[in-house]
Amino acid sequence: MAELGLSERIHHFRQLQNQLRYRWPAINEPGEGDADILVIPSFSVDQQELQKIDGFLHYEERLLFALMRLRNPRTRLIYITSQPLPPIVIDYYLQLLPGIPFSHARDRLMLLPIYDQSLKPLSQKILERPRLLQRIRHSLRPDCAYMVCFNSTDLERDLSVALNIPLLAADPELLYWGTKSGSRQIFAECGIPHPDGSPLVREVSGLVREAAQLWQRQPSLQRMVVKLNEGFSGEGNALLSLRDAPLGSGASLEERRAFVAQQLPNLKFESATESWTHFSQRIPLLGVIVEAFIEGEGKQSPSVQGRVNPTGEVEILSTHDQILGGPSGQIYLGCRFPAHEDYRIQLQELGLKIGENLAQKGVLERFGVDFVIVPPPPGSSEPWQVNAIEINLRKGGTTHPFMTLKLLTNGVYDLSDGCFYSQQGLPKFYVASDNLQREHYQGLLPTDLMDIIAHHHLHFDTGSETGTVFHLMGCLSEFGKLGLTSIGNSPEQAEEIFAQARESLDTETQSTWQACSGQAQATQPISWDNVPIGFA
What pTM was computed for the model? Predict the structure, then answer.
């Protein structure tokens, strides 16, 4: 397929995707037929933005929940990574499979490391290796094979065409609808409240102009948020404060422009490694928008997740309360499932409306919508003030924990109350994070983590369907960072299980780290104490 031109590749890609419409029952329902799943956990986003995230190369491990699909004895799976995965990590996941002999599952799993830790996206690395492509093609049964990925770009489209198998993800031609500016357009089309803001601009002068006009429309505005159009996980955001501006409400547009231009070099960036010099250079390449920053006592940041099936049907999958951090609380740290009962049904309704709009545009597979909501004053009967913030057309930080719960329990999500129920009819709750990070975790090997899990009984119990499932174990040794999903039968139990896992890790590592480093106290980049989001 390498000899095909761009228009021919796009045409062939869409022909392949059309096959998914007829194969959807076998893909969606375990046990309905044979399936060969090719997992490409490539982070095909702007690599400079990715470098702001500690251990982002190890984020290829985030899709390891896909190994749980091997509980279907008629499923085979190929998982490709930039670097080899520790065997003990693979064993850890396969041992979670209920009712399937470990050896049977392992025989249906092919791991293909590329041994390339360069910053290029994994999909690009695969396309650059003809022998690897040939090996993958020979390992797949074309009539039942399909490909999944973290996010879909031209690279994943070309890989789908090169392997001649369909990609279960959005057509890259439609990715605009998952950008900051595209999201705002869809919110407007759907009549969904969203912050006052600007269209996409690609020059600093345009940013100054749009920010000043926004301020002119809202003279009492305290802060604005400046967003790179394709920023990842809040790392491409920055705050512009207007609180100390020496201008009255009657200031002219020119005066506002002058103040904004003067203050841009003092933006408060969410990423600790970002600077105005670098940020301003990204604006022509990625584009930027500016929005009113939503203020409010007790505000929350929930999200809703859904998907558009190959048949065009829109399905709501979950809601979450996001746990955010960073200088102004815009960086994703983790989540709680489900979102608060006061607004989770409303989130489902808004998510369905957005999903139907995306389906009409031809978007396929997963989408997530982030919101900022502000509670009414105490004693008031007014509804929560809801503002949609952005749409993500990819798997996100909530995908891994929810799919882990779903595949481990084989339960169902109930739209009537927004809760998830196991096959025994028990409601399930969890607290999850990709960002449990402590300096004193550095140096831990995956085998050390397994020792701690066993000693403190932190494992997931398939009998009670409660406990913790760990991931991102490859980040531990170098970055002191890992992910975990703590599942309970009540919100309180999920919180307790999460706290026990964190405290056990701290107990096992902090004293040793202090002794080795000679420091009195370890740095804790992320605090999970007094997090403002919680279950009622």
Answer: 0.90
